[in-house]
Amino acid sequence: MSSSIRTTKPHEIVERALELSTADGCVVIADEESSANLRWAGNALTTNGVTRGRTLTVIATVDGKEGTASGVVSRSAVTAEDLEPLVRAAEAAARGAGPAEDAQPLVTGTPASPDFTDAPAETSSAVFADFAPALGEAFARARAGGRELYGFANHELVSTYLGTSTGLRLRHDQPNGTLELNAKSPDRLRSAWAGRSTRDFKDVDPTALDAELAVRLGWAERKIDLPAGRYETLLPPTAVADLLIYQMWSAAARDAVEGRTVFSKPGGGTRLGERLSELPLTLRSDPNAPGLESAPFVIAHSSGDDASVFDNGLPVPVTEWIQGGELKRLTTTRHSAALTGQPLSPGFGNLTLDAGGEKSLEEMVADTERGLLLTCLWYIREVDPATLLLTGLTRDGVYLVENGQVVGEVNNFRFNESPVDLLSRASEAGRTEKTLPREWSDWFTRAAMPALRIPDFNMSSVSKGV
């Protein structure tokens, strides 16, 4: 081998680590990561860069009289000389641990990826070949219109190679792009935000986003103070995504069975089968959803409530979490599925909410007699896990709608709401569209959501944020 593991092909590293293993079972995950980014402020590019990296995770399993233990060690910048010590460290961690509660036989039978031995996919600044000139045009338009644009574009590509001592050889390439654009007035008293999720930056138009933000800054020229209270509110797709992603992060079947979550039934059991919304809402995950493609098999670097290292390589099916408004599935590993008696439902790599609505957000505004139009949510935190009560702030524009027209910008608010409650009270869902969850964009970006109309959204207090 070369003196540096970085010059060796990822699949060879996986094979070598498996050869070195003396444990009863072994899983090796090599993540080849590359990223390219642009940042700008005041209508001018400020920085750009490209990064490369590799992270190697070794999971060793050791059988004992009382059960199977696991040890997990992950390291970046590993050299060839570090490989055997890394494998031995994982084995030592397993031998020093007690039996793993989530222990299961390592997965077998998942067909090998035909491209497992191919070189990793990589991104570069070339991903912005068409986007960058359009961004320059957006700068010129903003400058001419008296606006200042701030923001960033980031593209990541992770090629994951997964091999196991049970013969699995799997590979997945995950592109992930985010665009966030802020427009501000020169006095910085008005601000508007737009964001997009993309796989390749070929489907995002910064000039169109600038035009959208120009309209919003125009709305903000008139300021209206409103008190805290309950208001009919239009939640845009980005806000709906932020709320439902958090809901799914709180949807582990075991936690529900043990009476610790909003999906626990009073007196015991879960709320599976209960109707959560009168609207025909369907919440699903599909690894092959167009534009939202995600890993078709489990990639688990650690174990938790909704993931198990023993499940690595398990196929991920299409799953409907809510169907026609009814709660159908909660997330399970093989261990928690057996423990709770629930179907096996591995975690999700994307999320789509659909109610068959056809209206755009603009059309929903036109149908509003009086209400609030939000831009996005921010700083979301959990208040009560039993009800999934969340609190957070509005940001970058809350607008008052009267008789189908936006008449001005109102102050920001702190809200207190449970996404599960919101689904039960939603009176209308718009057209489902791909969106960027602003709050969770560092962790989860592959979402498609409709706008939702909430008749009585709880703005619990006034916020002084912009």
Can you walk me through this structure?
The protein has 466 residues and is an alpha+beta fold. The protein folds into 2 domains: 5-216, PmbA/TldD superfamily (PmbA/TldD fold, 2-Layer Sandwich); 222-466, no CATH class. 20% of the residues lie in helices and 37% in strands. A 6-stranded antiparallel beta sheet has the order 3-2-1-4-5-6. Helix 3 (131-144) packs parallel to helix 4. It is globular and about 70 Å long. The termini are far apart. Residues 1-6 have low confidence and may be disordered.
Give the SSE map.
Blueprint: H1 10-20, E1 25-41, E2 44-64, E3 67-76, H2 80-95, H3 131-144, E4 148-164, E5 169-184, E6 191-198, H4 206-219, E7 223-224, E8 229-235, H5 237-249, H6 253-257, E9 282-285, E10 319-323, E11 326-327, H7 334-340, E12 351-354, H8 361-366, E13 370-384, E14 389-402, E15 405-410, E16 412-417, H9 419-425, E17 428-429, E18 433-435, E19 447-449, E20 452-463
Parallel strand pairs: 7-15, 8-13, 12-19
Antiparallel strand pairs: 1-2, 1-4, 2-3, 4-5, 5-6, 8-20, 9-10, 9-12, 10-11, 13-14, 14-15, 14-16, 16-20, 17-20, 18-19
Give the tags.
Metalloprtase-TldD/E_C; single chain; TldD/PmbA_N; 2 domains; 9 helices; Peptidase; 466 residues; 6-stranded mixed beta sheet; TldD/PmbA_sf; PmbA/TldD fold; alpha+beta; metallopeptidase activity
Quick summary:
This protein is an alpha+beta fold and 466 residues long.
Shape estimate: globular
How many strand elements?
Answer: 20
Measured on Cα atoms, how large is the radius of gyration?
24 Å
**Poorly predicted segments:** 1-6
* Beta-strand content estimate: 35-45%
- Biggest sheet, in brief? 6 strands, antiparallel
Q: Please count the helical segments.
A: 9
Q: Average pLDDT, to the nearest integer?
A: 96
Elements, N to C (H/E): HEEEHHEEEHEEHHEEEHEHEEEEHEEEE
Could you give the order of strands across the largest sheet?
3-2-1-4-5-6
Calculate the terminal CA-CA distance, rounded to whole Å: 56 Å
Please state the structural category: alpha+beta
Give the helix level as a range of percent. Answer: 10-25%
Number of domains: 2
